[in-house]
Amino acid sequence: MKATVVAMLSLGALLAHLPAAEPPTEVGKLASAMKPGEWRELRSKGYDSAKLMRDEDILAYAGRAAWDERSQQVLFVGQVHLKGPPTFIAYSARENGWKRMPTPKWAEKLKWFHAYENNAADSARGVFFHHASASTHVHRYDVAKDRWTTLPDLKAATGHGTALEYFPAMKGLVRVYGGGTWFWSEEKNTWSQLAAKLDMGPYHNFAASSPKFKMVLFGGGNGSKKIYRLDAQGKITAGKQAPVGLGIGRSLNVVDPVSGELLVLSKDKKFLAYHPGKDEWRELPATDGPTAKYGGHSVSAAALSNYGVVLFFSSRPQGMKTFLYKHADR
Questions:
Q1: Per-residue pLDDT averaged across 142-153, rounded?
Q2: Which residues of 52-89 are buried (b: 16+ CB within 10 A; e: fewer)?
Q3: Closest C-alpha among 83, 140, 156 to residue 114
Q4: Beta-bridge partners for 101
Q5: d(C-alpha 170, C-alpha 121), whole Å
Q6: For residue 15, what pLDDT is reported?
């Protein structure tokens, strides 16, 4: 009897120190009810053009947003052509709501600016990155501390339409622009060039990390159909050419958090998947969601790894809607 009481007290003490289970979120409930291949509209708070986006199309010439696993937030910095400063917005899955974040100091005087493919995150550690367009500056945001810092200057060609992605397998950032590929090592806090003169478009390139396959998929740009695979050892190999143009204005590219496949929403309203391991493309049914009227602009996306779905969200020209898409079961 005494032993049983002691055991129960010990168990109670252990449970008292365990973190409390998080309450279910609207995203989680909706995602769990979905089947692979299904789209569902997500009703969220604060998704208002005037209050959130200043009634501007900040998703024009924009690629992916970034997802922070720790805070369960989608983070996005973007802006319209020749008008600043940039707008920083966030979606919280825990609150199922959107908000406009304070404009970073580094962005206050920027005028010519688009997001392109320049939003990225070290999601496991709660760090968001943004590469300021046509500059040598990459800025780092510590989500928990609400603090911006700047990485060492990138000694490379600059221009609009660049791509940035965090690569967990190499612990650093991959930057792509006009056939060149650079890498920032978190450990060394330095930039180095991985490749030059790869066959791709001169700008409007893309880059997307597939954690499952430990690769960064990149390329495209201005109608180019080229795709490359960067592996954890820093080796770059060419993949099978896409059936559509890839990159900003031609396609929206996001990696499914479950299958690791690259999902491509193209300007000609095709919805495609690329398997990095098999180096194969296939067309998916373009049913509900933004696929019905996507024209290459005004839609962004983020892979919600906590929930196994992708969030697509559009600005006013596409109807100010938010959708979840489930590609595969976990």
A1: 97
A2: bbeebbbbbbbbbbbbbbebbbbbbbbbbeeeeebbbb
A3: 83
A4: 88
A5: 14
A6: 45
